[in-house]
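Anyone? Bumping this.
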Amino acid sequence: MSRWLPSLQSRKTFRHGVHPPENKEFAKDSPIEVMEIPQEVRIPLLQHFGVACEPTVKRGAELEIGDVIGETQDALFSSRVHSSVKGKALKPTVTTLPNGRHVNVIPVACDPEQSLKGRDLFEEIFGGDWPKGGFEDLSPDEIVSAAAEAGLVGLGGAAFPTHVKLKGAPDRPVETLLLNGCECEPFLASDYRLMIEAPAPILTGALLAKRAVGASRVILCLEDNKLGAVPILERAASGTPVEIQTLETKYPQGSEKQLIQAVLGKEVPLRGLPMDVGVLVMNVNTAASLARAVLRNKPLTHRIVTVAGHGIVQPKNLLAPIGASYGDLIEACGGLTADAARVLAGGPMMGFSLPDLDIPITKGTGGVTVLAERDLRAMRETACLRCGRCVDVCPMNLAPTRIALASRAGDYGLAHEWNLTACMECGSCAYVCPARIPLVQLIRMGKVMSKKEAVRKAA
Amino acid sequence: MSAEPKPPSAEPVSRDTPRFSIASSPHLLDSSRSTQGMMVDVLIGLAPVLLVSLIVFRSYALLQVGLCVVSCLVFEALCAGMRGRSLPLWDGSAAVTGVILGLSLPWSAPWYIAVIGSAVAIGLAKWVFGGLGYNLFNPAMVGRAFVMLSFAREMGTSAYVRADASIDAVTTATPLAAAKMESVMPDLWPLFVGIHNGSLGETSALACLIGGVYLCIRRTASWEIPAGVILSAAVFAGLASGIGLSPLSWFHHLLSGSLLFGAFFIATDPVSSPLTPKGKWIFGAGVGFFIILIRVFSGYPEGVMFAVLLMNAAVPLINRLTRPVPLGGLPTVKEAVG
């Protein structure tokens, strides 16, 4: 009922959006646990937005945590890949990532005697002293190249290479740096746990990013279902210029353009980037990794992954080596329940369903959600009633039903007229559709097919 | 699913091998809403109207509405069968059409009017276009327009009145007809609670408001449409009475006839109304304008039906003109093509 009534205190938010069940209680209160090293990790050479890496190690090479195993020579849009364990490189193979891309992987047989494990690993990554200033000696270029060497990518999911983002463009200076701790996907709690357990590296990373891009304001943003983290962050941020901003809990608040709209009231141009309005958005986990990369010279080898859902015996937040399989993570959480039905890479709104569990996690994997039979109600599709509910919730202010039905009919020209490519596939429309039309699926299909059609026409 | 490295895949798929369901995101659906649920909502919203109708017109209301609902369901089944479909019969839309058609008829209409009206509503207005979701015009209003034009005597002003009837309400003319013919000003209180003559469902402004507000709160009906109808009808009615074209004040106009019934239950049919909030405002404002135009200048005392049908025809145009601008503005022409 509360959503019908205007809220008494004004809460900052973006236009439209939905309120799916948050389901944060699964993993919100379980402390980050360092995962047992599996027997083997398989590290993909493409984990980011951009060009795939070439392997730099031979079969049989002895690796330590943090050794470079893949890089590109001249592509800007790429990100180095490092070994996440101590062990021996095996013969390269191929795997299919949850998003359907076939990528080369370097399997590494893990040494049972790891140099760092358990709580020591957590302390090594997030512990110790994190300075809150004195970065004047570091030049922006040094920070950018440290990010590139550490193989940093956006850990919120899109995996955009961080050094490209920090480098920016000279004609579009960044005034405001937004740290994204919204984590609006249901079930996921990895950003929240990091803000609770290790706020210091987030703040340090934020100040380093501020230094790199020359921003004048830094705002750490989180939804108001994570108020528990606010006093902790405020304490950590005291004495720094970092502001803390809470926002209404609403999906997809964590989306870059929606976050900028909510906090600053600015609209990023349709095909543009946040820097077009003088903003840079960075996930809190990315910021912590940046601090580690710049000040300790350590690459990105591990990440926090929430494993949750009705289909998981014991939901947890794991600090997992990149390249561990989804099966390894699930095993570390007590395995699947008897009625587990669908395993998702990511959260339930935008996650990809996995065909099997022998797929490695990547830098961008923020969560594993396992849905049970009862979560998957078979829904019978009916004709579109043109009720306009999808229009009312679309955060990009589109008319999803028009785009989807034009795509289904194969009329891609019409789909473009209704701004097919502006859709970010957040799933809000399909979530609310009373006719159960698979709107996002149809729009995705429309995007692919219209490209194919354009190619065919050009030929 | 085991953490051990997998043995060669020659192993046959056993019962223990987990099989996962694969689907495109999103994997959560708001199960509180469905097409059928929306139709049930409309029926709940119509309940107060039906109740007042039963109080005022007693068994006449029951028979008329019952006959329309049964006929609509029968014709829905027939048409779905002809199209080789079994699915849509129980989605509730035919029942909604039946109730609205029944409530829009005079109490005295003979049985064949209900049956023919239902046949036209379901067959011609809905299934000829492809069934639920594809009709251009509001089915109940098409059915009503058909019988109104075909059976002028049974559906006209005189059909509402019978001086010797046992029901008090029907011994005098409908308020709008009385105002039109004899410039009689109706009392506001009967208009508000519904103790006066009229089509079965239109008499009580109060019942329409209760049911309509329920639908708007549930977002089953878009509030922009009734808001547009009421605001624009009030403005144009005020204008008409201000310059002496109508004996009724704007407030009488709002409470009389089927204006509120139409605003909340007929114009809000999602299939035959626009998609975007802006389009809904325009649509509602247009309906309100035409209602007053017809009431003031035409031979008919009431204009809701024709107003809704006229604006239904404008919906594709409204949709095209009110295409939402995406966040961040429109792409340039070159980008849009690429």
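Late reply, but here is one note on the structure posted above: The CA atoms of residues 451 and 457 of chain A lie 10 Å apart.
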